[in-house]
């Protein structure tokens, strides 16, 4: 009796181990697929990004949980304002989370970019960019974007570009350079998991955006080549 129980236990243990190994292999393969499909379209020098009509800026919190300014937010705003100033993009789609009246990523980005001398007419706010997927679906279906520069951190760009490809958007990535910060490994680990989840969203369970709304194509204003530089923060 004990021998039979031990044999059954060994079978269960081996099966569990095989499943864990299979899951690990699928996890690594999913990440490798996303990375190999997108790495060649990520530019790390702002002056080489674009040129394109539209830059999509992905929202993030202005502050960290510890109560200090979020360096990832600052890097995205710095990159977006410089792309406008250099003429590498003509219009910014600021897409972020606005689930409650107490938290509004698009308006925070808009205020910050105004301080960096980006004109109001060069910005459109998307209040329903609750996720990377939602931002890109809405860019295509609500704002009529067909081609864009995606502005975010380098570790986020592979997933964003992969989603854009699946949606039929012609996109390139522009990496907002951020100094390494404490706990960044947690962000990157979550991003590895998010890439695998994205494959499920796109190819298994047919994810839909949280909210779409009416068609509102972007209005791109004529460029102005001379902007004040005085107080702009790099």
TrEMBL record:
It is found in: Cell inner membrane. One of its GO terms (cellular component) is plasma membrane. Residues 56-193 form the DUF218 domain. Pfam families: DUF218 (PF02698). The keyword Membrane applies. Keywords: Cell inner membrane, Cell membrane, Membrane, Transmembrane, Transmembrane helix. InterPro entries: Cell_Envelope_Assoc, DUF218. It is a single-pass membrane protein. Participates in the barrier function of the cell envelope. PANTHER family: INNER MEMBRANE PROTEIN, PROBABLE PERMEASE, PROTEIN SANA. This is SanA protein. It comes from Billgrantia gudaonensis. The lineage of its organism: Bacteria, Pseudomonadati, Pseudomonadota, Gammaproteobacteria, Oceanospirillales.
